[in-house]
Amino acid sequence: MRTSQTLISTLKETPADAEVISHRLMLRAGMIKKLASGLYTWMPLGLKVLRKVERIVREEMDAAGAIELLMPVVQPAELWQESGRWAQYGPELLRMHDRHTREFCLGPTHEEVITDIARNELSSYKQLPLNFYQIQTKFRDEIRPRFGVMRAREFTMKDAYSFHIDQASLEETYWVMHRAYSNVFDRLGLMYRPVEADTGSIGGSHSHEFHVLADSGEDDIAFSNESDFAANVELAEAVAPNIERPAPSQPMTELHTPGVKTIEDLATTQGIDPAQSVKTLIVAGAQEGDWIALVVRGDHRLNEIKAEKLPQVASPLRMAEEQDAIKVCGAGFGSIGPVGLSIPVVVDRAAAVLADFACGANKPNYHLTGVNWERDVTAAHIADLREVVEGDPSPDGKGILEIKRGIEVGHIFQLGQKYSEAMNAQVLDANGKAQTLSMGCYGIGISRIVAAAIEQNHDDKGIIWPDAMAPYQVAIVPLNMQKSEAVAQAAETLYAQLTDAGIEVLLDDRNERPGIKFADMELIGIPHRIVIGDRSLAEGQLEYKHRAAPDSENIAVTDTLTVLMSKLGLA
Amino acid sequence: MRTSQTLISTLKETPADAEVISHRLMLRAGMIKKLASGLYTWMPLGLKVLRKVERIVREEMDAAGAIELLMPVVQPAELWQESGRWAQYGPELLRMHDRHTREFCLGPTHEEVITDIARNELSSYKQLPLNFYQIQTKFRDEIRPRFGVMRAREFTMKDAYSFHIDQASLEETYWVMHRAYSNVFDRLGLMYRPVEADTGSIGGSHSHEFHVLADSGEDDIAFSNESDFAANVELAEAVAPNIERPAPSQPMTELHTPGVKTIEDLATTQGIDPAQSVKTLIVAGAQEGDWIALVVRGDHRLNEIKAEKLPQVASPLRMAEEQDAIKVCGAGFGSIGPVGLSIPVVVDRAAAVLADFACGANKPNYHLTGVNWERDVTAAHIADLREVVEGDPSPDGKGILEIKRGIEVGHIFQLGQKYSEAMNAQVLDANGKAQTLSMGCYGIGISRIVAAAIEQNHDDKGIIWPDAMAPYQVAIVPLNMQKSEAVAQAAETLYAQLTDAGIEVLLDDRNERPGIKFADMELIGIPHRIVIGDRSLAEGQLEYKHRAAPDSENIAVTDTLTVLMSKLGLA
């Protein structure tokens, strides 16, 4: 493509209402244009990227045996009433009625429609397993659309739905999808992690989120530096320290600590290492009226999801008000500790191996030091209560944990029989008996991936596309092409050569200053750039630069195709 | 693909509410499934066809220099209010409001959105011409959706919009699009005609509809048997007969014709050839209160669009009531003729060369025979008034006209400044002066093409896909594959060979009777079929049959790939 034959409309200014870097860069590079809140037109350059993601997703889904179909965007209310979601779904479901006042919605997801198809089309276990997918426009009426296509109202999803006679078959397809998703992100050239996710209220034994790692992500992901292990920080297990608790060496001593309310206060005023202290939190027990004390190390944070899963503790988790704490412990927040409490105490694994530690004395303005488990207070219940931190051992025993922020771009999920039961989707099993179908569902946010890739790959000049996602793989920037016949001819020859070799090239044939051309190509993020100028040409050379490299290198005109094929991994 | 790994769900029964053959066959072949009135899921087989049409359209649009983008399905009311169409568009425009009660619609077309983009992105004539297109989901809330995807509410369109500094540039792109559309339908392998269409109220000097020819079409298309000429019957010129009017040979004679009301009555009761008579119609004149008599040959039909364009005639055309005719002519319908009338008479070209013709006598129950122009009545105004009929000379002077029914699947159109003026879309011209953009628009009904192709290509067994549109080009039907190792092996070998050669093959590996497999492959319409059975295999032969051929032929196993490549036009 020549810049003169397409629309390059880059912006110098940073758009006012763009909060994240991908949104700013997509607007500045002319990849998207805002039509209304949360509604974007994919401009030619942006659409090329979107289509590349689509193609890779499609190829991997096909390779994994999934079958493509295309369901309508507009869905009748009746199916949603049948599944119960017409009432459950909030205002994110955009509802409307047609000219005959029949109710419809714009599909944010297609479980109902596909389950309706399955119950009509499938009659026997012999047809199973089947995995249907589509790549399609979805709509979610977000209360506050933001971050451009990262959280738009209209967006492109790949959603797949698999149907099975039993859980074993569902598990099998689930892991095939896990592999297919990994292939997709590998091929896209993105740093990502499949992350174990909470299966939440829907149940099913497995759920993974696929996160693209980027500083601007909304989720904290803990992953091993040596293995595939990755989990949302909220779900990652903090393994028990592989040490014996030291024997007590200090007497328990009461310390007057006026004004000390926090672990940090204790450290600054008394010089006590937070890792050598514990904090105690009072939460409602599973039995109405009961209270439970949870103890974690002073430098650790309680993980509320883990706490909530304890059998002793009320779910959802409810923290005690200060007056409750005073009633139960004899002191308010800041002076509570495990010693002498009459309520059950659950101790985190890391806190349980401390000796000679500090804690609140359950007496206003007093703390204890030299406290020891067993000698001074029992640690009958030990559990994993805290959030993991960087440097913790990986729960799979391999390596230590790193924590990075992630952007969720995919989610695979075992739905089980939630929809098939509500909508009575059954087939006959091998014994001729009707069985409710088991379902899996597997989503990838196609348009979101484009934004996430930019969040991960950019610098202050603009986007740095991985080769597989770049709108064009190579930019040819001829200098002074309008005046120099030699430059024009070299540019045209190279353009024809590369195009013939199946490489996507953008030839910047605009009559603009070099600085403007360089800035535009960098902003747009084309990974490989060839500059053709009279001076180097006289020496039979061109200038090559990778978008992410600090410097350019000279290559012989005659070697250009070979060098580029090799840089692109094509030769 | 193997039938065991996809979903083949054909129906024996003809679905009750499917009125046209394409709808019936698409449902029976399992290409589409109805979700709600006018809303269809494209099932795996159908989607493969849809994608092939999409791909060919995309390739031809790209080759024609059009640039792909993707606009949202959901559009804000504001833009439609600006163009004036929010008020003009009827209930086909599905309107809705979001959670903040802002008004939106589902786009039936995208002139407003693209014009908004153009006015924001384009500033100079140097950027022009530009032609943007998208392939996208559209919604039109038809009052009575019918004929399956032929007239669905949700459908897939390719719509393109070009922008120009002047009419000359618009004309140029218009003809590029005309060529691109012809390429698309040529490549799809469909019989079609680009048909001159009425430019109607929007103006612009050209408009063409692209019609796929099929008996079930809604429009009558007249086209030359020797040239490219084609026009909607309503618009085709009936050229003046290339003959001299014969000299009168009979006296004008009054004939008592009680009960004769029509030309057919005159023929049956009096033996008068309709082609030797004229009929006279009274219509309102351009001046309030005036009446005009229009005369066409007895075997011809008045073309109302042509009549309406006469300067003497009121527009829209208004036929006289019988009491008006009696007042003006002295007789009612069935007895009117041109002789002795006091109102202006306009005579069709074919009627004007008659001699010794018959007509009403303007006297109840009487006709005249042996009437001659000039001698008995003047034919001062001669015009093209009638609809063309088969056998008429083509207006371009080449060949004669055939008339066939057509299904409109494409429309190219010069919009001129209708939207750019309403929405103030301007650029600076070479003199630095603001100029309102000229626009063209170019649509193709992608999903409709699939149905139209079936209307044109089917028999009583099912669909007959042109190679370019077939979901699979070749079907391999092994007989008794589950029991015969030789058959299974030959089938697998051929499947691998063809797949490696880039041919799309459906291997029917189901454990079904041959009759069921044959019927399914015929219904689905796969153009090339290979049957593999033990008997022919023993002789080193396979059976080949083209879907449209009456009989099969034997080919040597060793020649199969070569033969198929040649049948597919690939070698």
From TrEMBL, chains A, B:
Any one cellular-component term (Gene Ontology): cytosol
Keyword line: Aminoacyl-tRNA synthetase, ATP-binding, Cytoplasm, Ligase, Nucleotide-binding, Protein biosynthesis
Enzyme class, broadest EC rank: ligase
Coiled-coil regions listed: none
Keyword Ligase: yes
Pfam families reported for this sequence: HGTP_anticodon, tRNA-synt_2b, tRNA_edit
InterPro entries in the cross-refs: aa-tRNA-synt_IIb, aa-tRNA-synth_II, aa-tRNA-synth_II/BPL/LPL, Anticodon-bd, Anticodon-bd_dom_sf, Pro-tRNA-ligase_IIa, Pro-tRNA-synth_IIa_bac-type, Pro-tRNA-Synthase_IIa_type1
GO molecular-function terms, A-Z: aminoacyl-tRNA deacylase activity; ATP binding; proline-tRNA ligase activity
Localization of this protein: Cytoplasm
UniProt cross-references to Gene3D superfamilies, sorted A to Z: Anticodon-binding domain (3.40.50.800), Bira Bifunctional Protein, Domain 2 (3.30.930.10), YbaK/aminoacyl-tRNA synthetase-associated domain (3.90.960.10)
CDD domains: ProRS-INS, ProRS_anticodon_short, ProRS_core_prok
Entry EC number(s): 6.1.1.15
Gene Ontology biological process terms from the UniProt entry: prolyl-tRNA aminoacylation
SUPFAM superfamilies: Class II aaRS ABD-related (SSF52954), Class II aaRS and biotin synthetases (SSF55681), YbaK/ProRS associated domain (SSF55826)
The organism's place on the tree of life at top rank: Bacteria
Function noted in UniProt: Catalyzes the attachment of proline to tRNA(Pro) in a two-step reaction: proline is first activated by ATP to form Pro-AMP and then transferred to the acceptor end of tRNA(Pro). As ProRS can inadvertently accommodate and process non-cognate amino acids such as alanine and cysteine, to avoid such errors it has two additional distinct editing activities against alanine. One activity is designated as 'pretransfer' editing and involves the tRNA(Pro)-independent hydrolysis of activated Ala-AMP.
Similarity-based family: Belongs to the class-II aminoacyl-tRNA synthetase family. ProS type 1 subfamily.
Domain notes: Consists of three domains: the N-terminal catalytic domain, the editing domain and the C-terminal anticodon-binding domain.
Subunit structure as annotated in this protein's UniProt entry: Homodimer.
Listed name of the protein: Proline--tRNA ligase
Species the sequence originates in: Aequoribacter fuscus
Organism classification: Bacteria, Pseudomonadati, Pseudomonadota, Gammaproteobacteria, Cellvibrionales
Gene designation per UniProt: proS
